[in-house]
Amino acid sequence: MKPSPAFAVPKHQVFDVLELRKDFPVLLQKAHGKPLIYFDNAATSQKPQAVIHALTEYYSAYNANIHRGVHFLSQKASQAFDDVRGKVAKFIHAATEKEIIFVRGTTEGINLVAATFGRMNVKEGDEIVVSAMEHHSNIVPWQILCEEKKAILKVIPMDDDGVLDINAYASLLNSKTKLVSIVHTSNSLGTINPVKEIINLAHQKGIPVMIDAAQAIVHEPIDVHDLDCDFLAFSGHKMLGPTGIGVLYGKLQHLESMPPYQGGGEMIHSVSFKQTTYNEVPYKFEAGTPNIADVIALGTAIDYLNSLDRHAALNHELGLMEYASLKLSELEGVKLIGTAPEKASVVSFVIIGLNALDVGMYLDTMGVAVRTGHHCTEPVMDRFGIPGTIRASFMFYNTYAEVDVLIAGCEKSYCFIKMKTVTIPEIENEIIGEFELFDEWTEKYEYIIELGQKLPVLDEKYKIEENKIKGCQSSVWLHSEVREGKIYFEADSDSTFVKGEIALLIRVLSGQKPQDILDAQLGFIDAIGFRQHLAMTRANGLASMIKQMKLYALAHQSQQTA
Fold it and tell me: Which of 74, 92, 99 has its CA nearest to residue 298?
């Protein structure tokens, strides 16, 4: 992929990654005694010192509310705030500053459109189109709207590479389609969608289009005039700016026809108990005291981005992505998830037989920060039949040497986690040793409660009657899966103490072979004082959980020998 000529002419012609890294204080520290390697940029980018200074300068030098005061501080703050609207308009090539609405982030921008434009235009039987790779924030607001209006949510399918089926998309568009809301660049796959083509196809049928540009804004040149999108939202914290600030762009004719999103100060022209008249766009959508400091710092982030050679920055990021993809694909057990030909700087992958969370935690011990899980795109994970991925996402301040550490960490984690066999007695001894640190049962009880609070929540789809354990005083659900001959358990309960018991049982039995589970004596239960201190009903419940786990093991063992 080649960078677009839409980038502005840079002020700094030389792209020196090591020199640029000095601008980012976070990158200069260590994690667990190792140099910090930050590959979680798709979740949030790091901030240059200039942005951090902009925040502290506002609060220390001219902190005041804006658009209301005639005094020096208010005037200075108002001017600094208002200047940013113009910077944003220029950054995305909007026709006028009036088309720029300050929101908390992409999520609020999408919700604003759903709650105003959506409610105004969508009726019973109408349709809204999204894609199979959307972030939850571009699914749930439309589901809420569809439920309210009795409308229908249609989904553009994607193939095994993570590429949308444009022909299928075109066939979804009809007279009932009232809006298309599509992600520009997937946060979990890195796929860059052909948004201009998507917009053109919709506009041929008079259908407006909203673009989620949260991931694209810092990696791609965004020109709303060229795209001709009706709405576009992005977040400041993904483009070197602070959290809690973002932008909604909307074509002026849409914004002027839409009702307010919230009521309060600033969004009004006049108020009486008889009638209220609203302010003009964009203020109509910015009720209350705005996020002044973070808007000003967002302007500084834009200045910083404009000072870079963004052609070189984009090429560097793409180089990192391609290098990481190549090296990861050469590792035993690694499977890349999302292999579209047009991708941004995201690499998602799984290591067969290993839990993504385990790998992420192992990498963290090496100072490497990656993201694990479903990345707020559960439908994407369901499409690929996996619970989640390990995601490394790159920014221009990352280096090839850092990627090498990631690759080495993945290779070591495969050898260490997969090849290391920890026996049930060894785990039991570890638990007994932990509980020996406590003198009183009260302390042990509190520790069990703490374990219960940390137990991951079981997916609701597994909280079904067939997974419910009978014989427990509390509600307990147990789910099991077999991977490479070993049984893995997940469970949940409405009792925090029971969840603590479950956490201990899972620690001992999950990831073990069926026969080892069947043979397990679980002597740690008596050793730590469970039977001595538990009431009969609690003890029976614990026995029921153990029995069910062993029944699962027996069933899986029978399947293997059948």
Answer: 92
